[in-house]
Design goal:
174 residues, mainly alpha, 8 helices, globular
Length: 174
């Protein structure tokens, strides 16, 4: 676990841009509607995985690199005709591989919980009395990633889309 993996999604759910590409623009979410946050967190996760795979520092991204045309940079360095759509798919592939590894090692969706100090309703402030519905948010995130919303297992169609066909049915812990 890392404290930085949700950074882009948190920015995006508040209506801030994750980057200069249309694929990274998402509508501002109602902070209390956990059903609509899943796709936002999936997009943020995919972009974070791409950025991380490029070896770029997340802190620099919030400074002068915030408008970094990452897909264009990847194209320039590799000589590939690379788009942000391909970049987000690469990020999704990375995150799905991480999920498959966790499942193989015996982790289940219920193993991923918010700490109690975050999951209990605050007693004061603008969110007093309101709990985070993490179960709904996780289910919607799993759906947006192309995983079963309850088991977290990537759907066979998702594995095929990502070129991970060989993993279909092979990640269950033996």
């Amino acid at each position: 676990g890392r404290h930085t993996t949700g950074t882009f999604a948190v920015l995006a759910e508040r209506g801030m841009s994750m980057g200069p590409y249309p694929e990274l623009q998402v509508p501002k979410a109602d902070l209390l509607d956990y059903k609509e946050k899943g796709p936002i967190h999936a997009a943020g996760s995919n972009y974070y995985q791409l950025l991380n795979a490029c070896g770029l520092c997340l802190l620099a991204y919030f400074g002068p690199c915030a408008a970094l045309p990452l897909a264009d940079c990847i194209s320039s360095v590799t000589g590939w005709d690379f788009s942000m759509i391909e970049g987000l798919e690469a990020g999704r592939r990375i995150q799905t591989l991480r999920q498959v590894f966790n499942l193989r090692e015996g982790f289940q969706p219920e193993d991923f919980r918010l700490p109690e100090r975050i999951s209990v309703a605050p007693t004061m402030g603008p969110f007093a009395g309101r709990e985070v519905d993490f179960d709904v948010m996780r289910e919607k995130y799993y759906e947006a990633m192309g995983w079963d919303p309850y088991s977290g297992q990537p759907l066979k169609t998702s594995l095929e889309e990502l070129g991970l066909n060989k993993l279909a049915g092979k990640y269950e812990k033996k």
